[in-house]
């Protein structure tokens, strides 16, 4: 109960950083930052506020690792219908996890916040510090990439 | 509605973010009439569903909670302090479930102020939990935790009988610098929150059917730190 937000913080960090040790360090660092910044918290919902701190911590860590991701905000528009008939129901957990992990940071973050944390566009915008329109296009692009990824992995079988 | 417009709105529609009723009607009509868009919608549902159901949700390992909440004594002083504040932050964040300006907080602040004005802080004045805790025996139908927090910088001053609303309560008095902290213990609602009212800060939590409410003019982070110390100290 007391640590309810801890799971959300850890889940985000784990997806963004890709391993347990870094994720734990980032969450611990974030909770110190959150404490120092507690007096600046004005909203009614602490979760996006906390997750935005976690997100920034993760990005600071990644920055050192030279993983610059090309931004393609205009790419929200969907490509035409995919030719292959997708065997949707047989997607397995492992391939879904791999597909999400293969997404560029911005898109992975959008998927985790929307699908795993079930956050609204407004909350996601707050976490990522971007306009709601950008949330919308990132999410559309992310889902298209995910769909392509999953279709390919399905075909390879 | 064109296919292009339809495809752009599919995501928000799927996510319940399309609030314009007319747009929703137009989109649904288009989906019914257009097999291509309709198929794209099925794919979108499948991708979203796969992520929700198949992707792992990484819950925080227990050692992370422990690491934040209870660092080892062997840690250097700086790490010790950092970990303490981290623990306080986690508690605070959990507590920061916003209040309705409800009556309970009003009652608690009123009781706190009254105890200061009437200069009736104690029925039993003692810095020893072994004196204060037994004093309540037979006076209430429950036994409040009275942890020794002098090590954390919150010495105990004493206790008294009080009321919160119409409920009998134990009031424990702690001190931080020149700030008095009243902790009201009573049979009340199960809650977990921080509140601020009329210049006073409150931190409230529940354990074993009892509500604990700390009220003080101490700043919020320090009061949350106090609440955390109190809860950790109650277990022994
Ligand atoms: Zn269409």
Task: Walk me through this protein's architecture.
- The complex is a heterodimer of chains A (157) and B (236).
- Chain A is mainly α and 157 residues long.
- Chain A has two domains: 1-76, Rna Polymerase Sigma Factor, Chain: A, CATH 1.10.1740; 78-157, Arc Repressor Mutant, subunit A (Orthogonal Bundle).
- Chain A is built from seven helices and no strands.
- Chain A has helices at residues 4-17, 20-36, 46-63, 93-101, 105-116, 121-128, 132-155.
- Chain A is globular and about 50 Å long.
- Chain B is of the alpha+beta class and 236 residues long.
- Chain B folds into two domains: 3-54; 90-234, Phosphorylase Kinase, domain 1 (2-Layer Sandwich), CATH 3.30.200.
- Chain B is built from eight helices and seven strands, in the order ααααααβαββββββα.
- In chain B, strands 1-2-3-4-7-6-5 form a seven-stranded antiparallel sheet, sandwiched between helices.
- In chain B, a hairpin with a 2-residue loop joins β3 (167-176) and β4 (179-186).
- The longest helix of chain B has 20 residues, at 35-54.
- Chain B is elongated and about 80 Å long.
- Residues 70-80 and 94-101 of chain B have low confidence and may be disordered.
- Classes of the chains: A mainly alpha (157), B alpha+beta (236).
- The complex binds zinc ion.
């Amino acid at each position: 109960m007391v640590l309810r937000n801890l799971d959300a913080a850890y889940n985000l960090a784990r997806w963004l950083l890709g391993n347990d040790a870094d994720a734990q360090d980032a969450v611990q660092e974030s909770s110190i930052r959150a404490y120092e910044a507690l007096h600046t918290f004005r909203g009614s919902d602490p979760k996006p506020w906390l997750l935005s701190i976690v997100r920034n911590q993760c990005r600071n860590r990644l920055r050192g690792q030279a993983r610059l991701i090309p931004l393609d905000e205009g790419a929200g528009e969907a490509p035409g219908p995919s030719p292959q008939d997708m065997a949707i129901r047989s997607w397995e957990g492992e391939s879904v996890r791999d597909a999400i992990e293969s997404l560029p940071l911005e898109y992975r973050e959008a998927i985790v916040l929307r699908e795993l944390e079930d956050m609204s566009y407004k909350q996601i915008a707050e976490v990522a510090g971007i306009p709601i329109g950008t949330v919308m296009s990132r999410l559309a692009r992310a889902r298209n990439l995910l769909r392509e990824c999953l279709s390919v992995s399905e075909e390879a079988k | 509605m064109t296919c292009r417009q339809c495809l752009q709105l599919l995501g928000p529609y799927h996510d319940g973010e399309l609030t314009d009723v007319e747009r929703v009607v137009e989109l649904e009509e288009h989906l019914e009439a257009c097999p291509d868009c309709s198929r794209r919608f099925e794919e979108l549902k499948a991708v979203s569903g796969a992520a929700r159901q198949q992707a792992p949700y990484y819950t925080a390992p227990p050692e992370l909670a422990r690491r934040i909440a209870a660092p080892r004594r062997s840690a250097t002083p700086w790490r010790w302090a950092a970990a303490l504040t981290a623990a306080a932050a986690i508690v605070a964040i959990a507590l920061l479930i916003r209040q309705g300006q409800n009556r309970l907080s009003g009652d608690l602040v009123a009781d706190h102020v009254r105890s200061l004005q009437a200069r009736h802080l104690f029925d039993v004045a003692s810095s020893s939990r072994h004196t204060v805790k037994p004093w309540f025996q037979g006076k209430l139908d429950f036994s409040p935790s009275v942890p020794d927090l002098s090590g954390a910088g919150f010495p105990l001053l004493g206790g008294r009988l009080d009321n919160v609303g119409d409920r009998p309560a134990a009031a424990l008095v702690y001190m931080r610098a020149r700030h008095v902290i009243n902790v009201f213990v009573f049979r009340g609602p199960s809650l977990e929150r921080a509140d601020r009212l009329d210049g006073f800060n409150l931190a409230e939590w529940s354990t074993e059917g009892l509500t604990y409410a700390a009220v003080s003019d101490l700043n919020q982070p320090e009061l949350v730190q106090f609440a955390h110390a109190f809860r950790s100290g109650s277990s022994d």
